[in-house]
Amino acid sequence: MPLSEQQLRDDLVKYGRSLFQRGLSSGGSGNISAKLPDGGFLVTPTNSCLGELDNQTLSKLDADGHHLSGDKPSKEVPMHLAMYRARPQCGAVVHLHSPYLTALSCLTDIDPMDCLPSITPYYVMRIGQLPLLPYMKPGDPAIAAALAESAQSHNAALLANHGPVVSGSTLREAVFNAEELEDTARLYFLLKPYAYTQLSASDIDELRQVYRNKIG
């Protein structure tokens, strides 16, 4: 059963505060949104801190991204809208400047088709693959265009020198996906100086068969 608008407002405040308090979004960085039952969505306002959100001043937009009420929305609204349009099952989008993923987005030796190795089954189950999108300045409409193409087959993407964009069928799932992704990047940096074991191709195929509807 879909959550009411008030429940979504309360959850955006709750999860925003949680992400901020754990250092996954500092200052006024990052933005999150959640789809409303009527197809519109709520998004964090421009220059807002995820740790200080007010459920009454969240920006409310219609399904076409037009601002209906609340404070002025984030300049990254086109990015959220692109994800919703490309993935009909998407119920929420989380964009962070989390430390390990942002650091990963600056490396020169990563595979742009899949930025992280398959270290754990949880990364495969929740994300599957993480493509790298070329650098574009924050708020550039080209980000939305690139994300719209990528989101056809991926529920997350990494913006070069910027940070991750992660979706989920619900706000809770999108947040959990973003957390799992950040944890995988952290593990990657911890393991990078050493020899380590990745999941085998058969292990990955088995996991993707089960979770294809979620990550594809």
Automatic annotation (TrEMBL):
Domain Class II aldolase/adducin N-terminal: from-to ranges: 10-189
UniProt keyword annotation of Mitochondrion present: no
Co-factor requirement: Zn(2+)
Record-linked InterPro entries: Aldolase_class_II_sugar_metab (IPR050197), Aldolase_II/adducin_N (IPR001303), Aldolase_II/adducin_N_sf (IPR036409), OtnC (IPR050013)
Record field: transmembrane: none
UniProt entry keywords in alphabetical sequence: Carbohydrate metabolism, Lyase, Metal-binding, Zinc
Catalytic activity as recorded in UniProt: 3-dehydro-4-O-phospho-D-erythronate + H(+) = dihydroxyacetone phosphate + CO2; 3-dehydro-4-O-phospho-L-erythronate + H(+) = dihydroxyacetone phosphate + CO2
EC number in record: 4.1.1.104
Pfam families xref list: Aldolase_II
Stated role: Catalyzes the decarboxylation of 3-oxo-tetronate 4-phosphate to dihydroxyacetone phosphate (DHAP) and CO(2).
Family: Belongs to the aldolase class II family. AraD/FucA subfamily.
Protein name: 3-oxo-tetronate 4-phosphate decarboxylase
